[in-house]
Amino acid sequence: MLRLNPTFDTQKDVVSSILAKEETVRGNIGVLEPRILTVERDGGVVYSWRGATGTTRIGKYDPHSTENKLLYTFDKQVCVSSCSLNREETLLAVSLSQTTQGEGRLRPVSKCLTLLIEIHPINNTKVLKAVDCRVKVQFLYPKTWRTSVLESHLLLVAEDGYVDQYHITLTRQEGYRVVMLNPARLGRDRVAEEFCWVQWDSDTQRLYYLTAREKHTLKCVQFFADRNFETVFELPLEMANIPNAPVRFVNFGYDHYQELKEEGLKLEVFTDPTGTMCVCYSPPVCWHKNSTYTIAFVHRGCSKTFTVSLEKDCAPANESTIHPIFIHLGYYIAVYLAGHFLHLINCRQQDLLCYSLFLSGADGDIEALGSGTEVVNVSGGRLLDVRAGRMYSTELNHDILLELLSSDRPEAQRLAALHCMLVYLQPNPVIELKIINWISENVMSFDAFDQIQEFILASLYRISYQQCVSLDKVLPYSCVFEKKELPVALTAIPGVKCTPDLLCQPLIKGKAKSLQGYWEELQHVLDRMRYFEVVPSPRFRTTLIKEDWTRLQAALNSEKKKSPRYHHNIEENTKKVLSMVDTWRLDRRVVPLFQEEDQQQRMLVGLMVDKLREHLNRHLSRLGKKKIDLLVVNYTAKLLELVWHVLESVWQKLKLGPWVLCLKQQGSSEEWAMLHVMFRILEATKGLCLPLPPGYSTLLSVLGVRCLPRHTFLQYVDHGLLQLTEPFVSRLMTDLDNSDANEQLKFSILKRLPECMGQKVSQQWDHPITSACISREYVRTLLDKYPESKDSMLLDHGKSSFYFEFLPLNYLAKILSDREEKAQNPFEEQENVDVRFVEETALKQTVIKLGFEVK
Fold this sequence. Notes:
This protein is α+β, with helices and mostly antiparallel strands.
């Protein structure tokens, strides 16, 4: 599931390069024990190796130029436990552990020597510490616009529980020599003290540490480019004390001469620029017990503790305890225990467990990380395998996620995999097409969720969240929450116990400068969280539109004159949406959508814009009306494009063409499949009260006529599954001939149409009955529209209606001609209607009524 891509390998990128430059001595290999020491903020890898003559050398690998540079050489073998290089590559800080040889291996002793070395050029060496505890060193890498800075800042972190910052002023001599200005008197500040755990985040230049005076409190110190620092964050944590546990150093490089002790608490902090903060911790795992780990979602004000039952048969014979590995993937936190499970925990949506993906056994194996592998999170979100000397970038395996969508998987797992691909992964046309193919092949809705609804809502959530992170809590991201009762399959993971809890409120403090960037965003996230805790229904539910939509439909059906102002506003909303729909490829589209006026869908589009705008104005007014209006219009436009994209993909997959729009032929099996998919899309969108692109109903009806039996087609119309649109009925009247079956279908369609549409469409059918209807409507309208003439009294109603010369018809024609002369266009809606047409129609009807044979 989790794919590791190698970005650095000591054997490939370091050893081979050094061997090419150095000669072997007395047949011995010139590079022994290459070891990665640390990874700096710029991506440079600092490493050491033992030369053939017994020297210890320190070098740096530049990932941008792929070149290696020798930094410093010790003339004897030393044990480098910590190392850091300043940004200008003029100073090297090194902590050395003194060791004794015994039983064939190195054993650590308490003595530690910390040195500050000038290396540009190699000159002075200053002793910073000589203590009986471990010491970690780390240079700051502040972002600054200056290309050359003659000052460096070094963190010195001691196992005794304190952190000092040294300010080292440099000077340039002879144009190229950079040396310490006053090495005897270096400025020093106390940054933190009395901690039991400490973590360095080089990407953000933050120091996290855990104090345990009365209760555990997580604190964060932010460092700035102007040599200042400030404690900006405090969070009380409820966790058990582990007596005599060693101090843990996280992200301070790696000490190859320290024996790891797994008895202590493992804890790591992960942040994201969007304002998320996750604190992950776990006690050591005993193979005969359960694995327990806690993820504290600081930005959500809650934590979840997971307990996973382990299989005893998988316990290694040589290891009794081990910690799970925490890997930050941005949207997810991956918790991995080799040979047992991989748990992708959703950092932003913790409402239900089904949005986190849990894989056990072989499904969760990561090939590069076997049992006993020592893995460290380093700069840039990469992983360092200490023993193998490799670094990896991480990514989720698309192919495995697609396999998880198969029918033999639990529905909760399929939902999590689908959500992961739609929301977490960057837009990828190939993956999106595969998901659409999966939807088209599994068109029946699952018990737990509707895959089409999930595809639409999750895709829209991803698009909108990328535009504005504030929409996280107010937009729908899944169809599950529209259900009245949540399925049990989505609320639990088999074999995993989840215990939720509330977190204490964190304290964000500091001056205006320190609250910029990430801390400002985190403060906004926390404020929104507190607001949404007391506000009911903060997340927009599309089904809430149904009641307004029902009222609007009733108003549309009863409306004969001008639309009220509200309807006008909705129509303006629709025009904005359709103007934003992607039209640059309209001429290349094979599915005929967005090519007609669909009044019902147009009103639903406008109504959705209106309701969503109202919702955002209520909860996110600080964004401003202009931005909110742009967001909701773009959201609705993307919705219509998503539906079109699904149809276009399925249409091309089935290799359908323009012949599908012809009503004279029977549909093929491919058209049946297309019809089925379109019905499922219709069902999914109706369930959420989402609009469809104009032209959707016409295309669906055309496919229905081609594929369905006539009686089934009419039943679908009566039950509202098919909507009779004017373009469809017009095509039906003109394309089909007047055979008995087609006449029966046309009459059945006409009697189901609204009166206004029926009058307009019937003119397009050349049939005696429709002609009679047109004539009667024309005469009625013409005579009702103008006052009665005196000449009409001359008509003798007592006589028979049938004369040899058919005088009543002649007289009616005279009256109609007189009325037409007085009114230039008496009946605008009727086309091709005049006195001659009425006369011919009346004669035909008379002949039919008298039973005469028409020649």
